[in-house]
Amino acid sequence: MSGENPSSGPADESNEGNSPAVNTTSNDQIDAISRRVQEALSMGRRHRFWETQPVGQFKDVGDTSLPEGPIEDPSPLSEVRQEPYNLPSPYEWSTCDMDLEETCTEVYNLLMNNYVEDDENMFRFNYSKEFLRWALRPPGYFRSWHIGVRVKGSRKLVAFITGVPAKIRVRDQVVLMAEINFLCVHKKLRSKRLAPVMIKEVTRRVHLENIWQAAYTAGVVLPTPITTCQYWHRSLNPKKLIDVGFSRLGARMTMSRTIKLYKLPDSTATPGFRAMELRDVPAVTRLLRNYLSQFIVAPDFDEDDVEHWLLPKENVIDSFVVESPDSREITDFCSFYTLPSSILGNQNYSVLKAAYSYYNVALQTPLLQLMNDALIIAKKKEYDVFNALDIMQNETFLKELKFGPGDGQLHYYLYNYRIRHTLKPSELGLVLL
Ligand code: MYA
């Protein structure tokens, strides 16, 4: 998922009683202030590229006279530019075929070495090849939307951006959009205005499929977020998290008290809790569609989407259903995806294994219990941390299940679609990877 600090943990594992990670240290206050200053600066400064794009502009924030919906009308396809945009002369466009092992490895290596890091450059997202294949090849995907930039001659891959198609509902309108992700420019080629060319090129290729809207997330403030969410982290392996600097031992806490605080039972509590299977797709689709209908912005999943996005895939996506022991009906559902981060410059550890909460629907089982079962499974599978955004109904379990607020913020954006009011995170039902 995209564009957020890979892993910046609860600032402080301090604990009086049961509430973990209360941000009490002055460092955290400084971090929070620095973030707000950066956001204010972003709103105040010129955005040479984004000012030219059909996105909500900062000057229009609060102007409720502007209509909701597309900002620009679609053009006739014959008017969409046929030739790729020009790159600086040493570089060339290269459509990346993720079915090819060699290409997938090149993309993996580019991202492993150059993708999103936390503010302190301690962690960097390390999406696995299997994950990338899953994320980039949903039903109806376009290979032409997997765009690389190579050095002419050496063919070295130095930049990447992708789109995948998705039906996204905004209030009562279902809009076919592109979800844009994995924008990455090699560290040595930063600040040369390559990103705007790449964004224009992916836009052109999306337009060629007669699609005119997009959704994306980023850790940076751009014109203009539809909502801003916060990551919360639940320690599963607190000793490692503290050793690698992901979290800190709280004031008046010992390591053994901290380990005890985060201990989880050995087995799940909900009768009928089991891994999702292919035969569950229709029931899970019904549950999810019904659940997601309450949010202002959410995906409009059909059975093919559910099969792709939610059927378990080892080390990529884990999903569980609750099958009622009496009626055999599927009553509840929960899921998380696997996104490790590289730990930069630590002698003892190189990878942080993180689970990210995906879609959860609790009808019969209390959400708190369902998510606690997800934590138990994640711990058994040796994840170090379980992350969740404060979107959907997640706020109802975060504190109680000992998640602590991280320092990563994630901003959600729509391209060429205006929303009149900024959403609350709890009004958002969309998770981007
Ligand atoms: S979010 C993940 C982004 N990736 C990373 O953070 C990885 C590490 N960083 C890098 O690789 C580079 O720093 C990147 C920028 C590539 C991010 N989203 O080339 P530049 C604007 C959008 O000189 P660089 C994800 O993948 C910046 O404000 N714009 O900068 C979702 C400035 O514009 P302006 C961004 O640092 C991506 C311009 O780029 C982002 O060398 C969604 C500077 O360009 C960002 N994350 O490269 C993309 N960061 O002057 C939009 C910087 O105006 C999709 N910028 O402020 C839009 C929809 C398109 C499809 C539409 C279809 C209809």
UniProtKB/TrEMBL annotation:
UniProt entry tagged with the keyword Hydrolase: no
Source organism superkingdom = Eukaryota
What residue spans carry the region label Disordered?
A: 1-34, 57-84
Q: What is its EC number?
A: 2.3.1.97
Q: Which UniProt keywords apply?
A: Acyltransferase, Transferase
Name a GO molecular-function annotation.
glycylpeptide N-tetradecanoyltransferase activity
Broad class of enzyme this protein falls into:
transferase
Q: Where is the Glycylpeptide N-tetradecanoyltransferase N-terminal domain?
A: 70-229
Q: What sequence ranges are listed for the domain Glycylpeptide N-tetradecanoyltransferase C-terminal?
A: 243-426
Cellular component (GO) terms are: cytoplasm
- Tell me which SUPFAM superfamilies the record gives: Acyl-CoA N-acyltransferases (Nat)
Q: Which reaction does it catalyse?
A: N-terminal glycyl-[protein] + tetradecanoyl-CoA = N-tetradecanoylglycyl-[protein] + CoA + H(+)
Where is the sequence biased in composition, kind Polar residues? 16-29
Q: Which family does it belong to?
A: Belongs to the NMT family.
Q: What does this protein do?
A: Adds a myristoyl group to the N-terminal glycine residue of certain cellular proteins.
Q: What is this protein called?
A: Glycylpeptide N-tetradecanoyltransferase
Q: Which organism is it from?
A: Nymphaea colorata
